[in-house]
Amino acid sequence: MSMKAQKPCVEKSGVHKYDVFVSFRGEDTQDNFTSHLYSTLCRQNIQTFIDDQLNRGDEISESLVNAIEASDISVIVFSESYASSRWCLDELVKILDCKKEYAQIVIPVFYRVDPSDVRNRTGSFGDSFSKLAERLKVNTEELRSWRNALKEAATLSGFHSLNM
């Protein structure tokens, strides 16, 4: 099934435009877990935003920030290489800001990674994070915000050890 952010599965009125925003690392999950999740949500008439565009710049776009803000729930699909993407980590920080500011519900899904590896940036998940930080040579404040976001998100109730 083709996932298209531009074509929501149902129209929604009111303050929020989407029921669910899905944050994921495409190379790990797009053709398996995430596509099934998206299909299932749409079959249940749940308005879902999923960004499957592969041409990404260094910063998340304003339209993506707006989609995060316009969602009632964010689902974060943590996978082995999630932390190798600056884009994903910036999405995560924005999602957690929306949790604080708008009381957005945030549900972490741990896809073939252990929550403690996400929380502590260890194992292969931690290796991905370290390689990104080394490659980008990002400032200390940005690294700190990513570390804090990973720790916070990994302590939320969610779905652990999905090995589909």
From TrEMBL:
BP term (GO), one: signal transduction
Keywords: NAD
The TIR domain, residue ranges: 16-164
One Pfam family of this chain: TIR
InterPro entries: TIR_dom, Toll_tir_struct_dom_sf
A single GO cellular-component term on record: nucleus
Keyword NAD: yes
Official protein name in the record: TIR domain-containing protein
Organism: Citrus sinensis (Sweet orange)
